[in-house]
Amino acid sequence: MTLFSIARKTIRQNFSNYFLYFASMIFSIVIYFVFVSLKYDQTIQATSDTSPKINSVFSGAAVVLIIFVAVFIWYSNSFFTRKRKKEVGLYSLLGVRKKQIGRMLFYENFIMGCLALIVGILLGSVLSKFFVTILMKIMGYNAIVNFTISLEAIINTIIVFMIITLITSFHGYRLIYRFKLIELFQADKEGEQEPRTSFIIALLSILLIGIGYWLALQNMLDSAIWRKIGFLVTPLIIIITVILGTYLLFSSLTVYLLKVSRKNKKKYWNGINLIGTSQLLFRIKGNARTLTIIAVLSATTLTAVGAAYSLYYNNRSNVEMADPSSMMFIAEDNNIAEQVNGMITNSKDHDLIYHEALSTLQVDADVTNLNSKFYSDEMIYTVVSNRDFNTIAKLQGRNDVLSLQSNEAAVLDAMYSEQMSPVYVGATISLKINDRKENVTFNHLKKYSIFNYRTAGTTIVVSDELFAGLAKEIQPENMLLYKITNEDNAEQLTKDVQAIMPDEARFSSFYADYAAGLESSGLLIFMGGFLGLVFLTATGSIIYFKQLTEANSDKERYEILHKIGVNKKEIRLVIAKQMAFIFGLPLIAGIAHCAVALTALSRLLQINLVIPVMICMGVYTCIYIAYYFLTVNAYYKTVTKTK
């Protein structure tokens, strides 16, 4: 029997232990293959005007995926090598040469990698059409997707994962050379001393995380501490303090709390609680690095996916804010205006809700008195009369009426930000009218606009008397506003209208901005979602492998417990409690880190992220819980399996 056949037989006999590792590798290969395939997909290139951007995004995502998968496979491999140490030591004791043992371990890992690569590419090829269809759907395209297999993607995937497999296989080959024989037989007893900790280090973990949270939740645009430390250095400090604090949280604070809980004799000696507490106490410090990595990855994944989904979720409301009218442009040519009227009124797919022509003014203004850090001393505003504002506001269903007198004014700013925009109400600006200035004072601030932002920008509403006087000195611009039904499906109508528009018309449309937002946010959520799933499956698998390794070490102890009268139900209960602690800690820490990061992002972007983030956290937690039950079941079967 050759070493290769022995390796193949070993994999076949222990496939149940390798299955999750094998499945995680396959999933990673499938996602990587899909990402690479999307770069070369003809449907995307023919449908999307931004296919170069899609190519670059997926190229970047593929690089991130390669790094993560390589680390995951290496990390997982180290768990399996520890599990195999005693077996390897036995081979060596029986006289098998180190070179032969190393080759056998090399073959085992290489076979697993090749099998995963073959299955992953086959599944990726079969599912490629499905994934492209999903991407087209969330990006708002209705293209017909043809089934194609990219030869470039296959070659790329084979090269990348063969390199990773060869490196990890060589790592397995070196196992027999890296440890002495006695170390191989006593591998299960490593790290079994009770960990030491101190109240000061435990307190330091909370302090470090608190500092990171406090810095993250500061108003970065107005914060003196951000300006003093620097806008590039502060985020780095936040990352370092939170990661270090998380590590100390798992390695010191949890140990300290477990030791404190042990002093509660009534609870500690109740049933077999002492077994579970002791197991956690002796193992938690050894798991600290793993739990920290998982907590940080969970936070990163949730933050990235939550932010991407928030943009996708809020896309329509953001576009409705920026484009209250379905189409809007400056009409300098009556012929073009008549053509547009004909196109819209004759459209079979859309009904006209309103069509208004308004006289507006483009005015330069001295805004020095606004005292804004982010505004220059001069701004260009679109000026509209009080009467026209009330008319359009009523058509748009705003139920908002202004009654301005003399030099009173209201500002309409759909992009208003409490952090970046000036304090308008009470401020006075000077409108430049030829060789003179006309002062107006803002009495009202409206955080919306009756005009599309791309066409009109920030708008000022003035009294009818003042507008009439200004119109005698400044050439008015005729703005046309259209509101139609089914505006988010007005692709062809928008293209037809846009085709006849000159640049100076400053044409804007709801559909164009909605489709652009859907495309960019859809691309982000597709990439973030699938990368997030890879991270989740990998981190869940890491905990699974780690606990399964410990289960094999603990098997004899649980057999002794069973012999002295502890029934299997009690054993399962103590295992479930242990796993809840191991799974719950990084999940809670990751969610807490994510919540702070997204709260800071929400404040900066002035976007409500609660609903989309809660959805992402719910899905993530459900998958994580599935891993928890899978691990509890596997651990229980391992420690109760009879010889």
UniProtKB/TrEMBL annotation:
<feature type="transmembrane region" description="Helical">
    <location>
        <begin position="154"/>
        <end position="176"/>
    </location>
</feature>
<dbReference type="InterPro" id="IPR052536">
    <property type="entry name" value="ABC-4_Integral_Memb_Prot"/>
</dbReference>
<feature type="transmembrane region" description="Helical">
    <location>
        <begin position="579"/>
        <end position="601"/>
    </location>
</feature>
<feature type="transmembrane region" description="Helical">
    <location>
        <begin position="523"/>
        <end position="545"/>
    </location>
</feature>
<feature type="transmembrane region" description="Helical">
    <location>
        <begin position="291"/>
        <end position="312"/>
    </location>
</feature>
<feature type="domain" description="ABC3 transporter permease C-terminal">
    <location>
        <begin position="61"/>
        <end position="178"/>
    </location>
</feature>
<feature type="transmembrane region" description="Helical">
    <location>
        <begin position="106"/>
        <end position="134"/>
    </location>
</feature>
<protein>
    <submittedName>
        <fullName>ABC transport system permease protein</fullName>
    </submittedName>
</protein>
<feature type="transmembrane region" description="Helical">
    <location>
        <begin position="58"/>
        <end position="76"/>
    </location>
</feature>
<keyword id="KW-1003">Cell membrane</keyword>
<keyword id="KW-0472">Membrane</keyword>
<keyword id="KW-0813">Transport</keyword>
<feature type="transmembrane region" description="Helical">
    <location>
        <begin position="607"/>
        <end position="630"/>
    </location>
</feature>
<keyword id="KW-1133">Transmembrane helix</keyword>
<keyword id="KW-0812">Transmembrane</keyword>
<dbReference type="InterPro" id="IPR027022">
    <property type="entry name" value="ABC_permease_BceB-typ"/>
</dbReference>
<dbReference type="Pfam" id="PF02687">
    <property type="entry name" value="FtsX"/>
</dbReference>
<comment type="similarity">
    <text>Belongs to the ABC-4 integral membrane protein family.</text>
</comment>
<feature type="transmembrane region" description="Helical">
    <location>
        <begin position="197"/>
        <end position="216"/>
    </location>
</feature>
<dbReference type="InterPro" id="IPR003838">
    <property type="entry name" value="ABC3_permease_C"/>
</dbReference>
<feature type="transmembrane region" description="Helical">
    <location>
        <begin position="236"/>
        <end position="258"/>
    </location>
</feature>
<feature type="transmembrane region" description="Helical">
    <location>
        <begin position="18"/>
        <end position="38"/>
    </location>
</feature>
